[in-house]
Amino acid sequence: MDPRRTRRAGLLTCASALLAALACQAPEADEPLPRQDAAERPGRVVDSIFPIEEEIRRFRAVLGPEPAGLSGGASSREALIDRFVTALVEADTAAFADMVMNIDEFGWLYYPHTIFTAPPYELAPGLVWFQIQNGSSRGLGRLLGRVAGRPLEVLGHRCAPEPLIEGPNRIWEECVLLVDPAEGEPQEVAYFGSMLERDGAFKFTSYSNDF
Taking Cα atoms as reference points, which of 54, 45, 196 lies closest to residue 125? Predict the structure, then answer.
């Protein structure tokens, strides 16, 4: 059998297992989440019989205790990107779970400070988490299937000049890597979503990307 095909099959098997772990479902609530078409239009007010404070309470009821801060991750944007590139080149699928925001960090540290807690963008935390996980899982799957295990020369990175400030959180958006392909000119490519900075710790909010 072609050894390249065997290696690729093994990598995709690992990717499937990791995606299953990352794409955990949002906590079950007593009421169904709004229709998905509402999720596709974040500016639309979602009709709910519960105030957002109750939605947050119900979401947190099945989470772990409030985290003291972001776990894993890195101490700077550069360090987080270095970890990401190393994991991608080495096809270290387990490393990706430690670099991205988990559901406890979302429910306790991230979501309460977002625009989705108030009109006109109000969306229940379970729906916002589903949207993030859906894009992240698909993005990571594409990375692992198309890029992982191959050489990647990164010349630098760029994000928006200023972060989005949401309470104690700083969200670095529009982040891209400047990569030097084997053929052609260097190009900027989005390999991941925004980066969350809190109390000097950095993690990815998701693995949504341009692939």
Answer: 54
Which token pair is 159? 């994000």
Q: Which residues of 67-88 are buried (b: 16+ CB within 10 A; e: fewer)?
A: eeebebbbeeeeebbebbbebb
The structure's pTM equals 0.78
* C-alpha span between 95 and 133 (Å, rounded): 17
Instruction: Kindly state the average pLDDT of the residues 10-31.
Output: 43
Considering the chain, what is the average pLDDT of its residues? 84
Do residues 39 and 78 touch, judged by C-beta distance below 8 A? no
Contact 34, 50 (CB under 8 A): no
Rg of the Cα trace of the chain? Answer: 18
pLDDT tens per residue across span 31-40? 333 333 333 3
Residue 16, phi then psi, degrees to nearest 5: -60, -40
DSSP 3-state of 152: coil
pLDDT at position 182 over 50: yes
Phi and psi dihedrals of 89, rounded to 5? -65, -40
